[in-house]
Amino acid sequence: MDPTIRDQHEAAEAEWLTAWLAGPKRTRWTSLPPQVGDAAPDVELPDASGQGRRLSQWWRVGPVHLIFLRHFGCSCLSERWNLLCSELVAITEAGAATVAVAQGEPERTAEVAARRGYPFPILCDPDRRAYEVFGLLEGTPSQVLHDFPWRPDDRESVEKGFAPRRGTERAVVDDPWQLPGEFIIAPGGRIALAHRYQYCEDFPPQTVLLSAIAAARV
Questions:
Q1: What is the C-alpha separation between 188 and 177, in angstroms, rounded?
Q2: Residue 54: in which H helix or E strand, if any?
Q3: Are 169 and 152 a contacting pair, CB within 8 Å?
Q4: Distance between CA atoms of 186 and 60, rounded to whole angstroms?
Q5: Is the dihedral of CA 152, 156, 160, 162 positive or negative?
Q6: What is the pLDDT of residue 89?
Q7: How many CB atoms lie within 10 A of CB 108?
Q8: Which of 4, 46, 94, 104 has the smallest CB count inside 10 Å?
Q9: CB neighbours of 156 closer than 8 A, spacing ≥ 6?
Q10: pTM of whole model > 0.90?
Q11: What is the pLDDT of residues 163-194, one digit of tens each?
């Protein structure tokens, strides 16, 4: 593994452990998040090559399907990618460009995207600034883990449940509590759909995405 990517991965694993032991902190909005009809925040983030990109460069062209990802080791992200593989053609044919936001740094994100074959541009948000301005909260243990008996500072469960995943595709990294979201942004930057996941597998139906894209084009 490239030394830079290795160091980033080790730091991301350490970040995950600290956040996991402490528990979620940002589970409530302190102000109303952007809603349907509002202007989407035009954040600038580096892409997987390190080049700064603004979201508006895509919505100047047409509708945007903007998807905020779970951390790279999450099984829910794997499930969402499996579904997207069969949905991306329809989304593209409907006239929308899919753009993703991930929690990794450019180097680590580029390595994961190439290995998994993600065909869309990915913007990198290791500080989760864009996640926050789009109103995406951290989930509670019941939203993220369901039947896992989480307790604060429970290192024993970490060693039993997650240590075996180190060095694998499912290695846990970044923020374990960050919930994903998917948005349809109309040309010009207005939000046509704001789907903030209420739990990890709260994937929006393809029909909802396509209907929002159609509405965004009107």
A1: 32
A2: strand 52-54
A3: no
A4: 9
A5: positive
A6: 96
A7: 26
A8: 4
A9: none
A10: yes
A11: 899 989 999 999 999 999 999 999 999 999 99
